[in-house]
């Protein structure tokens, strides 16, 4: 229990970094490295990745208000293909244009990935 949770009206249990089921990516403008990772350990509790929590909440809200666009926004997450969004990010970023998520995942080790841009 964190201070953030203590003062929240609603909280959702999210996976920690080693428990992620989907790919995560980060980079910085101050270094030439792209970091892509995915968790390797099983979740200890009934937790979900951040992106899945957002998708499921949106889908439920859409169901309650009768608007399927709420779930449509998260289409690829709900279909278990969230790497589509990472590819779109790569395609529209100056430093990652031409990078393919599948290529990165095929070339680098499955433990921790650092690719020089």
Description:
This protein is an alpha+beta fold. It has one domain (about 10-115). It has six helices and three strands. The chain has helices at about 5, 50-65, 70, 75-80, 85-90, 100-105, and strands at about 25, 35, 115. A three-stranded antiparallel β-sheet has the order 1-2-3, with no helix packed on it. A hairpin with a 5-residue loop joins strand 1 (about 25) and strand 2 (about 35). The protein is globular, with a radius of gyration of 16 Å.
Q: Span from first to last CA?
A: 38 Å
Gyration radius over CA = 16 Å
Number of strands: 3
Low-confidence stretches: none
Report the structural category. Answer: alpha+beta
Question: With helices defined by DSSP (H or I, 4 residues minimum), what is the helix count?
Answer: 6
Question: What is the mean pLDDT?
Answer: 86
What's the overall geometry?
globular
Quickly count the domains.
1
**Main beta sheet: strand number and arrangement?**
3 strands, antiparallel
Strand order of the largest sheet: 1-2-3
Q: What is the quaternary state of this protein? A: single chain
Order of helices and strands: HEEHHHHHE
Helix content: 25-40%
What portion of residues belong to β-strands?
Answer: 5-15%
